[in-house]
Amino acid sequence: MELLSAALFGLLLASILPLIFFFAFKDGINSSSPPNPIHSKSINSPSAAALQIPPHSDDDHPDVIVVGAGVAGAALAFTLAKDGRKVHVIERDLTEPDRIVGELLQPGGYLKLIELGLEDSLNGIDAQQVFGYALYKNGSHTRLAYPLEKFDSNVSGRSFHNGRFIQRLREKAAALSNVRMEQGTVTSIVEEDGIVKGVQYKTKNGKELTAYAPLTIVCDGGFSNLRRKLCKPQIDIPSCFVGLVLENCKLPLENHGHVVLADPSPILLYPISSTEVRCLVDIPGQKVPSVANGEMAHYLKTAVAPQLPPEVYPAFIAAIDKGNIKSTTNRSMPAAPQSTPGALLLGDAFNMRHPLTGGGMTVALSDIVVLRDLLRPLSNLNDADVLCNYLESFYTLRKPVASTINTLAGALYKVFCASPDPARKEMREACFDYLSLGGVFSSGPVALLSGLNPRPLSLFCHFFAVAIYGVGRLLIPFPSPKRIWIGVRLITGAAGIIFPIIKDEGVRQMFFPATVPAYYRTPPML
């Protein structure tokens, strides 16, 4: 029976292997050459008061209300205002955020930033160029470079302090005369006959007001209190990040992110300024050791520190002793919009993925480009039927970038986590060795991860090419029954990782977008 299973398995591999490799290595990367942004060395974040401008008069109603002024909200406000829209931004807290995620912008996201005219938001915040990754496992390491050969020399990833970047984006938006940026807390959405007309909010001084606009776009982040009105949230919390800042630390590979395939889950390191390195320790589950009673410091020193590259060990211990340890939950939520004329979700309020691959800002900026291009033909947003007609394709047009990055983030996290299961161990080993092969074996997956090649089919094929590569390692030189069985479980395990993620993203949306019905009601064609 085992011999029969092995024979059938061999026939299966022989039939699908050519197809997988054809699509996996047929990677088309955008080769447009963007302009060079101008760099500045000063770091000077604007205050919350400086971001707020005098309100419009009562009869000067906005075209768009943007709820939230994080990366997505501030960039969106600037983009729509540049196209001539009057935008009212309502943000709960306009002071500089202090977060431990949202600090790495992939090259694909940087290209979108240039497309939006916002690349100079990275000036003056000591942002660092990132040219790829160093991947570590059990003392071995490999370099994974971004495939940037066809781009201008200035194109790369960027890493920075999240709060500094957000303040720059807010400053850019608030400087436009048709943007009103206000500090306030949105409490509810205003609806009339099933169409969103605006929002109710409480000002900084506690005054309750109502703002009206033909289009309301909610970008209030991963902890949004408005998303339940606009989508069907299915939030998963696979792990937590524990973050430290390593001062005066020199990474083994300069201007690269570093991923350590540690036990039980990955550790990330990347520069966020010329003198600081962010370290993120992933801890599976929703609970982390207590910082207050010293459990966290003990865990980091005894379980995490020995697994780090020796070059960063002293700075890591020093950061623990300094005591500025922060943690955050890592949330994952597929995009599941509800038909809501007059309103739209964007950013982490709408769609989240594990931050392992640093793809969140790339997805958000790509969504803004899609939305801007959809709205451009409309000179007037007040006709709800016409507005719906233009917006109905947003959720489909965003899918190539969003679903590729989302699926890869979820799949890589599961593969990179340690497991006692022999098949999962083999998959982890196979992934590391596959990427270490270089050439298309590394440039293909890295192009997907970086947002330079947003092709779901290419992702699917690369993922199973890794699995088949792992099976080949098991069957050579001698395919014993035990190795054959582990190989079968490796393939089925790989399918068990990626297919649920694809199902959540939507099979039709990812691979057959033309067959997807509109989420909005469909008015007569213009």
UniProtKB/TrEMBL annotation:
Residues 63-93 form the FAD dependent oxidoreductase domain. It catalyses: squalene + reduced [NADPH--hemoprotein reductase] + O2 = (S)-2,3-epoxysqualene + oxidized [NADPH--hemoprotein reductase] + H2O + H(+). The chain crosses the membrane at residues 434-452, 459-478, 484-502. Its main location: membrane. It comes from the Eukaryota. InterPro entries: FAD-dep_OxRdtase (IPR006076), FAD/NAD-bd_sf (IPR036188), Squalene_epoxidase (IPR013698), Squalene_monox (IPR040125). Its cofactor is FAD. It is a multi-pass membrane protein. The keyword Transmembrane applies. It is found in: Membrane. Residues 213-485 form the Squalene epoxidase domain. Pathway: Terpene metabolism; lanosterol biosynthesis; lanosterol from farnesyl diphosphate: step 2/3. SUPFAM superfamilies: FAD/NAD(P)-binding domain. Its EC number is 1.14.14.17. Keywords: FAD, Flavoprotein, Membrane, Oxidoreductase, Transmembrane, Transmembrane helix. Belongs to the squalene monooxygenase family. Catalyzes the stereospecific oxidation of squalene to (S)-2,3-epoxysqualene, and is considered to be a rate-limiting enzyme in steroid biosynthesis. This is Squalene monooxygenase.
